[in-house]
Amino acid sequence: MAVKTLSQIKISVLDLAIVRDGGNATDTFKNSLDLAQKAEKWGYNRFWLAEHHNMQGVASSATVVLIGHIAAGTSTLRVGSGGIMLPNHAPLIVAEQFGTLATLFPHRIDLGLGRAPGTDQLTATALKRDDQAAMEFPANVEELQRYLSEGNKNGRVRAFPGEGLDIPIWILGSSTESAYLAASLGLPYAFASHFAPAQLYKALTIYRNNFRPSEQLKEPYTIACVNVIAADTDYEALKLATSFKRLFWSIIIGQRQQLKPPVKPEEDFRDSMEEAALQQMTKYTFIGSPEKIEKELNQFIEITQIDEIMVASAIYQHQARLHSYEILGELNKRG
Length: 335
What we know:
Blueprint: E1 10-15, H1 25-41, E2 46-49, H2 63-72, E3 78-85, H3 91-104, E4 109-114, H4 121-126, H5 137-148, E5 169-173, H6 176-185, E6 189-191, H7 200-210, E7 222-230, H8 234-252, H9 272-281, E8 285-288, H10 290-304, E9 308-312, H11 318-333
Helix pairs in contact: 1-11, 3-5, 6-7, 8-9
């Protein structure tokens, strides 16, 4: 098997629509569109948005609306969900919503599906999420596939628009269970290693070993999502990363907050046990200068043999965030 490198695979963006401290959702949406437009120019393949609820620091709760906003402001970039939490929605509604998007933006919409609630249990109840919803995820994926298929023309319930349109379905996951499902359905697989790294290699192996070709996909196709914070120097990247680390630490301790301004790396102190917990959750985070980022991502790609890398970058200053993605885009263009 030929060894893949960063310059030989596709790169994409995962935008969590993070609201920074002192900002608001309006700023976030403006910055998301600006990032998407520049990512398109820099050669990125996809721009995905994630569904989250009841989080003051995340503005992507109306994921479908944001996908339409980003798609309307770009022309070639694939735009989609990373993902839609299917147990929060009726499959028919998802088929109709994404059918509408695919009608407005033909051959550019991706439908990534996850089974988690994207929130806490109390909010999941407010979403009218059924207690058995996660258990029914495989059946709901197949129901959704049926609504989007040309073969449903004689069905008593049909999706208009949606039926027969080009809307690739992806299975998203952070565990081996999702790998088995993606393989059995012959669907592409995206793993959330940016926050759940523990089972990445095992899940990829299971997916590849059990993959069954389908009408949508003939061979396994994998994406791994990672965190990248790139800057001109290692020190500057470490400083930018203090915002990211404080954000993830707030998640670990259950005190979610908005993205804070960076501080000097030497001022961002946690004791050894706290730092170990943070490192465990953010294992696949790449921080540094272009040379360091390129070296470490090439090692990651060689080991995982992924087909595409998707990047999340929680950086406080918008221009610094843009520059981080620009650096990665330039590294990807090196032949």
